[in-house]
Structure formats: C-alpha cells, structure tokens
From TrEMBL:
<dbReference type="GO" id="GO:0010333">
    <property type="term" value="F:terpene synthase activity"/>
</dbReference>
<dbReference type="InterPro" id="IPR036965">
    <property type="entry name" value="Terpene_synth_N_sf"/>
</dbReference>
<feature type="domain" description="Terpene synthase N-terminal">
    <location>
        <begin position="76"/>
        <end position="283"/>
    </location>
</feature>
<keyword id="KW-0479">Metal-binding</keyword>
<dbReference type="InterPro" id="IPR001906">
    <property type="entry name" value="Terpene_synth_N"/>
</dbReference>
<dbReference type="GO" id="GO:0000287">
    <property type="term" value="F:magnesium ion binding"/>
</dbReference>
<dbReference type="InterPro" id="IPR008949">
    <property type="entry name" value="Isoprenoid_synthase_dom_sf"/>
</dbReference>
<dbReference type="GO" id="GO:0009686">
    <property type="term" value="P:gibberellin biosynthetic process"/>
</dbReference>
<dbReference type="Pfam" id="PF01397">
    <property type="entry name" value="Terpene_synth"/>
</dbReference>
<protein>
    <recommendedName>
        <fullName>Terpene synthase N-terminal domain-containing protein</fullName>
    </recommendedName>
</protein>
<keyword id="KW-0460">Magnesium</keyword>
<dbReference type="InterPro" id="IPR050148">
    <property type="entry name" value="Terpene_synthase-like"/>
</dbReference>
<dbReference type="InterPro" id="IPR008930">
    <property type="entry name" value="Terpenoid_cyclase/PrenylTrfase"/>
</dbReference>
<dbReference type="GO" id="GO:0009507">
    <property type="term" value="C:chloroplast"/>
</dbReference>
Length: 350
C-alpha cells in the first residue's frame, strides 16, 4: 500500500481508512500507527476536510456525504438530514445511509435500505442506483464498437431518459444523486449533442475551481484521467463562439499530455485494459479526423476490455458496459460489413 498509485485507491479511501485506524487504536489493537505512509493518508484526510469545512458539510450537499460512516465523530446527525436525497439515501450510498438511520431512526433512510435489501438480497452495492452512469457508458461502448446501428431504438429511448434526468448543473451517476460530476456530465452531453438534443456547454462553468481549473467535484484531492479524457472528447464537439469548450479543450489536452509524459495514467474511477492507448489515440487523431469503421476496428482489437472493472467504495463490474457478448457481436458485425463493402467495391469496379 505504501508504493501503490494514489489513483488506484477506492473512493473516499483517505476518509474511511483513517477512521478504521482510529477505531483500531481505540480498541487497543497493536498496529504500526506511526508508519510514514499512514501519516500521509491522515494528512490527505485533513486536506480533504479542510477543502469542505464541517459547517459547509452540514449546509450544502458535498461528496463528504458519501463517507458519513467514516465521519461519525464530526457529523451533526439531525442537521445532516436536511441534505438527504429524494430516494432517502445519502449520495446513493447504503453504508452512509445506514449510519444515519442508526443515529437518527429516520424513516426515509429505512425505506431506502429496505429497498436495497429486497433488491439485492444477500449483499449491498457500494452505491445504487447508477442508472445514468450505466446507460451513458453502455451507449458510448456500443457506438465505439461500431454496433450501434443494431440498437437505434434502444439508444434513442435511453438518451431520452438521460436527457430527462439531466440537471441544470450537469449529470450524476444516478437520477436521485444531487451532485453532478464532470465525467458523467461530459459523457452524457457529448452523446446528447451527437444525437441532436439541445444542450448547452455552459454547464461546465459549474466544474471550475477558484483558480479557473476544471475539476470533477468540489473538494477533490486529485484529478482522474477519465475526467479529463471525457472533457477533451466533449470539447471537440464545439460550435462557433462556444468559448467554454475552447477553454476545456486547451486545459484537458494539456493535462492529458502531462499525464502521458509523466506516466501517470491511473484512473480513480476504473481499471481499464488500455486507457493509456485510448488517450494517446485521441490526442493523435482528433474526433473530426477519425473514420468510424477504422476507429471501431482499433477499439475492438486494442482498447475494449470485456473484463474492465470500476472503482467506488469497492471494485465492481457493469455487465451492460463490459461483457463478452458485445465483443463477439462487434467482431461478427465488422467482418460481415467488410464483406458487404468488398462486394460493393467489386461491383463498382466491374
């Protein structure tokens, strides 16, 4: 753990791990609490809490709500209830919602937890629902594999759902999650614009810090590759006089180049088969210069990971995004279309 990249830690790790260490110390467990890298994790926790002060945490919905179970020593339980999501959860997190229920007995918390138990039975996911995240990444995957022409009706219906659940400040991973992030927002808005939906890139103003830099969330301690990669992809779909997308393109391109030069390509949201190669290809061949069938072949052969996993409080898979069936269909479809094109070319040349 001492030498692992920071980007490969689970979400809220610096908050949760320090709470576990504090509890172990209270129980009298003999652990090496003074190791330098453990102190670094403690410093990261303090850094994050300073970025989102306790008074702000109780008045505005922030990402600290996702880790309430690890902040029990500072949470004012009755005050935190006013930041509850529509579905009764706290940022769609069963564990955060559970600790609030234990401290307050709030019925909406219980209703959400009861729903989770009935839905999943013998386990609980780290976050639920993730309906927007799963939908937009599935569409993007299907398009990049070149098999979207088989699913036009499904894609249209899914994008209608995403558009309906997009907020003025962006898109989150779930419909009842009140905190949008730049990663999901850029992915969703890029797809919506590609399919003719009226969207405004001015939403990106909500994802700038006090220094004018683009960020995923307020209070984050480090930036992920996926955040800036999808910001860059969205920026390439700009219309004339959309200054915010020009700024986004320059910022994200510079950030991605820096990551490649310094070999810092670990993403904080996922473990992907070939994220480095994806970024390199995107920087080398912008979207306006790409050829769909060539891009599909590259994605099929080199980039798509049927076993890719995603990072939250735990490591999980999204079978509607990464699966063997997509890849098999993409290969069959590519070969079939290639035969069709070759036949058409032969008939033209006769």
């Amino acid at each position: 753990m001492e030498h692992e990249p920071t980007g490969l830690r689970t979400c809220g790790f610096e908050i949760a791990f320090q709470a576990m260490l504090d509890e172990a110390r209270d129980l009298g467990l003999d652990l090496p609490y003074d190791l330098p890298f453990l102190k670094e994790i403690s410093q990261l926790r303090e850094k994050k809490i300073k970025r989102i002060p306790i008074e702000v945490m109780h008045s505005v919905q922030t990402t600290l709500l996702y880790s309430l179970e690890a902040l029990q020593d500072v949470v004012q339980w009755e005050n935190i209830l006013k930041l509850q999501s529509r579905d009764g959860s706290f940022l769609s997190s069963p564990s955060a919602t559970a600790v609030v229920y234990m401290k307050t007995g709030n019925k909406k918390c219980l209703d959400f937890l009861t729903f989770i138990v009935r839905r999943f039975g013998d386990h609980a996911p780290a976050q639920y629902p993730i309906d927007l995240l799963e939908r937009i990444w599935a569409i993007d995957t299907i398009q990049r594999l070149g098999i979207d022409h088989h699913f036009r009706k499904e894609i249209s219906a899914t994008l209608d759902y995403v558009y309906k659940n997009s907020g003025k400040e962006g898109v989150s991973w779930g419909r009842d999650n009140p905190i949008p992030d730049i990663d999901d927002t850029c992915m969703a808005f890029r797809l919506l614009r590609m399919h003719g939906y009226p969207i405004s890139p001015d939403v990106l103003e909500h994802f700038k810090d006090d220094d004018g830099r683009f960020i995923c969330f307020r209070g984050e301690t480090h930036t992920g590759i996926s955040d800036m990669f999808n910001l860059y992809r969205f920026s390439q779909m700009s219309f004339p006089r959309e200054q915010i997308l020009k700024e986004a393109k320059a910022f994200s391109k510079n950030h991605l180049k820096g990551c490649l030069e310094n070999n810092k390509v670990e993403d904080k949201w996922s473990l992907k088969k070939a994220l480095l190669k994806e970024v390199e290809c995107a920087l080398t061949c912008p979207w306006s210069m790409s050829l769909p069938r060539v891009e599909a072949r590259t994605y099929i052969l080199h980039h798509y990971g049927e076993s890719d996993v995603w990072i939250a409080k735990d490591i999980y898979k999204m079978p509607y995004v990464n699966n063997k069936s997509y890849l098999e269909l993409a290969k069959l479809d590519f070969n079939w279309l290639q035969n069709v094109y070759c036949g058409e070319l032969d008939s033209v040349l006769r």
